[in-house]
C-alpha cells in the first residue's frame, strides 16, 4: 500500500509512487534523468535552489549534452529534497504553503532556511524531525 508521502513523491517524480523504501532506493540507484530538474522547476522550485542543494546548472548542462543520467549522489540529493517536500506538503496541506515554509528561516534551525539544510543527510534529518514535531503540535 502506498502512503500519502510516497504518493506525493510519485507526483513530484512524475512516475508511479514508490510503495516501499526499497523502491525509493532503486529509483536512486537507477539514476534519474536530467529532465527531473525541469519538472521540479515546473512544480515550484527555483533554479537557484536547485543549484544550491542538488546540482549546479553547469553540471546539469554537461549531463544533458552527453546524454547522461544524474549520478547516484545527485539522484540521492534530488530524492532527499523530494522526500522533505512531500512531507512538508502533507503537513501544510498544499505545495505553496510547503514551499513558503521551506524558504523561511526557522529559529530552531539557527535561523537557516529548511531548504538550505537539505544539501546534507544530517540537515535533512533535522528538517524532517522538526516537521514531525510540528505535525504532532509541539512547535509552529
Tell me what you see in this structure.
The protein is globular and about 50 Å long. The protein contains 8 helices and no strands. It has one domain. The model has no long low-confidence stretch (mean pLDDT 92). It is an all-alpha fold and 140 residues long.
**How many structural domains does the protein architecture include?**
1
The rounded Rg comes to 15 Å
Q: How much helix is in the residues? A: 55-70%
Number of strands: 0
Largest sheet: none
Low confidence ranges: none
Could you tell me the strand content as a percent range? Answer: under 5%
Topology as a string of helices (H) and strands (E): HHHHHHHH
CA(first)-CA(last) distance: 30 Å
Structural class, by secondary structure, is mainly alpha
Mean model confidence by pLDDT: 92
Shape: globular
Number of helices: 8
Amino acid at each position: 500500500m502506498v502512503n500519502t508521502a510516497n504518493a506525493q513523491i510519485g507526483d513530484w517524480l512524475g512516475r508511479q509512487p514508490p510503495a516501499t523504501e526499497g523502491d525509493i532506493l532503486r529509483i536512486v540507484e537507477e539514476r534519474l534523468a536530467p529532465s527531473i530538474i525541469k519538472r521540479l522547476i515546473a512544480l515550484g522550485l527555483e533554479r537557484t535552489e536547485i543549484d544550491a542543494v542538488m546540482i549546479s546548472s553547469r553540471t546539469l548542462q554537461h549531463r544533458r549534452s552527453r546524454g547522461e543520467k544524474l549520478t547516484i549522489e545527485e539522484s540521492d540529493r534530488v530524492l532527499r529534497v523530494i522526500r522533505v517536500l512531500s512531507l512538508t506538503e502533507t503537513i501544510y496541506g498544499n505545495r505553496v504553503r510547503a514551499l513558503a515554509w521551506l524558504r523561511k528561516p526557522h529559529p530552531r534551525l539557527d535561523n537557516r532556511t529548511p531548504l538550505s539544510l537539505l544539501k546534507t543527510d544530517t540537515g535533512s534529518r533535522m528538517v524532517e524531525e522538526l516537521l514531525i514535531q510540528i505535525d504532532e503540535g509541539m512547535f509552529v
